[in-house]
Amino acid sequence: MSTSTDPDPHTLRRPAPEAASSLSRALDRWLGSRAETYAVLAVIALACLLTLLRLSTNSIVADEHVHRTQILTLAGGDLAIHHRLTMIPGYHAVIALLARLTQAESPPALRILSALLGLPVIAVFHAIVRQLGPRFAAVATLQFAFLPLLFPLYFVLYTDAFSLLLVLSSVLLVLRRRRTAAAAVAILSVLVRQTNILCLAFSLGLSYLEDHGKALSRERLISALRQNLLFVLGLAGFAAFVLVNGGVAVGDRSAHPLTLSPGNLYLFLFLYFFLSLPVHLAALKPALARLASTRVLALSLLFYVGFMLTFASDHPYNQITVLTFRFDNPQLIGHAPFLRNELLHLATHNALTKTLFFIPVLLSCLLLSKTRLVQPRFLLVYPLLLLLLTQSWLIEQRYSLIPLSLLLLARERTSPTLEYATAALGLAGSACFIYGIDQHLFFL
Fold first, then answer.
1. How many domains is the chain partitioned into structurally?
2. Could you read off the pLDDT of 10-50 as tens digits, one per residue?
3. What is the CA radius of gyration of the chain?
4. Helix (H) or strand (E) holding 323
5. For residue 276, which of 382, 174, 156, 413 has the smallest C-alpha distance?
6. Which domain, by its residues, includes 92?
7. Rounded to the nearest 5°, which phi and psi values hold at 442?
8. 25 within some domain
9. Is the residue at 18 inside a domain?
10. What is the pLDDT of residues 354-413, one digit of tens each?
11. Least packed by Cβ within 10 Å: which of 55, 89, 93, 226?
């Protein structure tokens, strides 16, 4: 029983909403300010510097030895392509040129050059989100910079950050109506990763929708192709390359056939749910409410049946562990698991684990169906996502980077608290991944 000296329980509960309201008002003032931009820039710069200093002297891992060999081959004046290199060596040619200019050939020096080549993608992303939605530009950039699947790749000899830089630069140039430059950059992106031809088509589609909207006619289509002739030449040039090359992959063709396979799409949907977990949990209730529709429920059950029948991880490269090499010779010094392979093995172990994996896959589909984009023309991300993620037998989380990045820059944001919570989650995830890679515990 309460006495006259007991605090009123209603009084005890009052400060909580007031404190929350004060935090919300403070975040609203902070959002979009110069102080926020400078603070985010400082955090990103410090994290990148510390990570580069830590990882640059680490042992070469996974595909790095193929990329380093190709870079040094080109730097030495030999145009031969490594038999396991699947892509056109555009990234390698740029690094080789910089290596010749700087006399760099050690793995630490090459990693620094690669980081300098890839890290500007953060600035390009920031420029895009400032144009699309300046109020949330800084926190969106923070989320992108610390995207856990991307952050470690800035600091190793992988093509992904540079490829993403060119793809997003093309998108930025389209948004600024510099179509010829956008097409030229998109063509260069194809010289880094052949699948970027789909991103070239995406940029062309953004241009068309800006000029003509959703209306589609023969006259509008011909007019758009004439106005964007360099895009068309890029598509034609790639078709000629495929005919002459006898396929899309340059090397290691038996492991990279062009085939219809949904594995990467399933992995993307699984990861998408967790990468923006605070935002998705807040939106989960209205997304789940869609299952009350008989049509949506029937489609979900049909999707589940298709998923159970088609989800498999049977590519040879999805069965292996990471190979770690010394700097001075290719002697193996350790094994570590690929996290993606461990996840896939666990997920495909039996019907129960498949079903558990399917839950966030379905939730992502429901959430995406409710996601609002800053401009209607960015709905093109969805067909791009399907095309990019269904044409590879090998399941790789890196193949999800372009769709993830485009969704990150194109979705609407309303809650500063949820967005900063998502950025904090990404920062924590990136730190864990960097630690694991540094200690040779795993690779992505």
1. 1
2. 444 444 556 556 766 777 778 878 889 999 999 999 999 99
3. 24
4. strand 321-325
5. 413
6. 31-438
7. -170, 170
8. no
9. no
10. 999 999 999 999 999 999 999 999 999 999 999 999 999 999 999 999 999 999 999 999
11. 226
